[in-house]
Amino acid sequence: MKRTGLAVVAVALCAPQGILAQTIRFNFDAVSLTYQEVREGRSSTGQGGGGGIELRVGRFRLDARAYTARLEPDSGGSEYDFKQVDVRVSYAVNKLLALEVGGGRRYVDPENATQEVGLIRIGVLSENQMTRLADVWVRGAYLVNPRFSGGGSADLAFEFQLGVGLGTANKRFRFHAEYEFQRIDREVGANDVPIQLSLARVGISFGF
Amino acid sequence: MLRKLTLLAVLLGFHPWQAVAQENAALRRAREAYGALDYRAAIAAAQRALGQQLSGGELVEVYELLGFMYGALDSSGLAVEAFRNLIILDPDREPDPGRVSPAITSLYASALGQVLVVRKVGIDSVSFVQGNGRVPLRFDVSQPAAVRVRAVGNGLDLLIDSLSAAGAAGVFWSPVLEDGTPVPPGRYQLVVEAFARPEQYASQVVVEVRHGTVDTLEHISSLPGYDFQDEIEFPGRNWRPLGLAALYTAVASAASLAMESSGLGSPPREEIAGVGAAVLLTGFIMSIKKPDARAVPANIRYNELLREQITQRNADIARQNAVRRRQVELTVVPVTGGSR
User: Fold this and answer.
1) B286 with A140: Cβ contact below 8 A
2) Are B245 and A136 inside 8 Å of each other by CB?
3) Which of A20, A152, B58, B249 falls between 20 and 30 A from B334, CA-CA?
4) Selecting from 3.40.630.30, 2.40.160.60, 2.60.40.4070, 1.20.58.220, what CATH number does the domain B118-212+329-339 have?
5) Closest-CA residue to A180 (of A165, A194, A200, A195)
6) Chain A partners of B282 at a C-beta cutoff of 8 Å?
7) pLDDT for B133-185, tens place per residue?
8) Are A200 and B271 within 8 A, CB to CB?
9) CB–CB of A163 and B256 under 8 A?
10) Is the reported ipTM for this assembly greater than 0.90?
11) Are A181 and A164 spatial neighbours (Cβ–Cβ below 8 Å)?
12) What is the pairing mode between strands B126-129 and B118-123?
């Protein structure tokens, strides 16, 4: 994960000046999440931090986010580290709607604490400027053929997100809050072992 | 008191005893007899005066009295003869129709038709920028005649115009030289010569030509009747931000509820509740805060056009001022008139 994050930052910093012509924004987040899997009552909660980079060039937008959290199972047991990296690339079809593709990778430490997941997402993003200072957005995506460290498959997997941003008129500083929900109906053999993630993220970003 | 008045008269150059001593006695008697309606005595006195040495003004007065008295006595031929002499001596002196009888006025007109004179030569004071004005010169020719008008002075003798005229006439003088430059400042005689063979007559008016600088135009910062418009406006407060926040929050909340996995039970809702509240609060604050100023494209375009117009006008004014600084304002004023 560390390598992926470094790669994203490296790409952003080493990209030709023309590509960075429009907006580049760095995010620093605090996250709180609830992770549920397999059956009712088996859930973990925890907090952590993360960061990311957002790059806008013309109609294109690149979002790369990562976070890590220390989760504690509600039913007792050992705590574990939960790490997630998401990359999204969107293309604005019009002022309100953008098509989005991307990928994600989830790591846990220790490895057998829960499932590690790899996924590809295809979705839409709707962002709306409330005023010059604030905007609100929702995004939803279908997760294509997620892969799990413990095997299995998921025919139905999706995620959506609600977010709000409030900052200065020159877009340099911005506070944001996001809610993210992810459901993956994992099956192993004939058994349903679903995964559900509910995450809140608040943070600050600096743009140039 | 009398001493003081006498002293003042001396200082002013007026010598009443000399004036009394110089006035022709016969003319005085003629004037007194005319006032007493004793025309024959007046005529006799006037005739005696003609035999004596008279000043120009006295001679004119004698002929005028003779014209009036012969007219009163119905001696038309003699009256016309007297008036002819009067006209030749002083063409601009004519009987006041309000004070003398129409018969006498008619006799004067008859005399005027028998001599060639140019009368009532004059101009009004006029001021204009070189090349943009002319000096109107008016005169009256007593008989049909060929008229030539010249401007003479400062070593110049310029033909102003030549024409055939009878009665009231006029010409315009453009006081510039052939190359377009104004005539030098100074005094000029505007001479009106009339020719009707075998007679000829000339009269003149002396004018003074002055040079001055032409006023330049001030640059403008606005156009009358066209005001600059506000390029930004503050729209009225509206609840769109809160509406958007509510819409997006509702969509997310509904999706969250609808898509929860039944096999995992109800998830905790602190995350969606917290973020949803943040979204709604942001929308509410954005709705109640003073709306951002927004540009008014139509007004911006209007102001651009207005500025372009003002810039163009100022460029025109600058060009005009450059020309005006090279120009001369000519002022022509009459000084004296005369005839010969």
Assistant:
1) no
2) yes
3) B58
4) 2.60.40.4070
5) A200
6) 130, 134, 136, 164, 166
7) 899 999 999 989 999 999 999 899 999 999 998 899 999 999 988 888 889 99
8) yes
9) no
10) no
11) no
12) unpaired
Q: CB A164 to CB B274 under 8 A?
A: no
8 Å CB contact of B267 and A36: yes
List the beta bridge partners of residue A162.
A138, A179
Q: Which two tokens stand for residue B238?
A: 């509206």
Q: Measure the CA–CA gap between B173 and B9, rounded to whole angstroms.
A: 43
Residue B144, both tokens: 């049909």
Q: Which fold has domain B16-112?
A: 1.25.40
Mutation choice for A interface testing from B262, B264, B287, B290 by most A CBs within 10 A: B264
Instruction: Spell out the domain ranges in chain A.
Output: 2-207
Cα dist. B287→A136, B232, B238, B252 in Å? Answer: 14, 19, 6, 21
Nearest chain A residue to B273 by CA: give it.
Answer: A179
Could you tell me where the DSSP H helices lie in chain A? Answer: 2-14
Please tell me the distance in Å from B241's CA to the nearest CA on chain A.
5
Digit-coded pLDDT (tens) for A137-165: 999 999 998 998 888 888 889 999 999 99
* Fold held by A2-207: Lipocalin (2.40.128)
Cis ω before B198 (30° cut-off from 0): yes
Ranges of each domain in chain B: 16-112, 118-212+329-339, 232-256+268-324
pLDDT digits (tens, 9 = 90+) for B251-262: 888 888 888 777
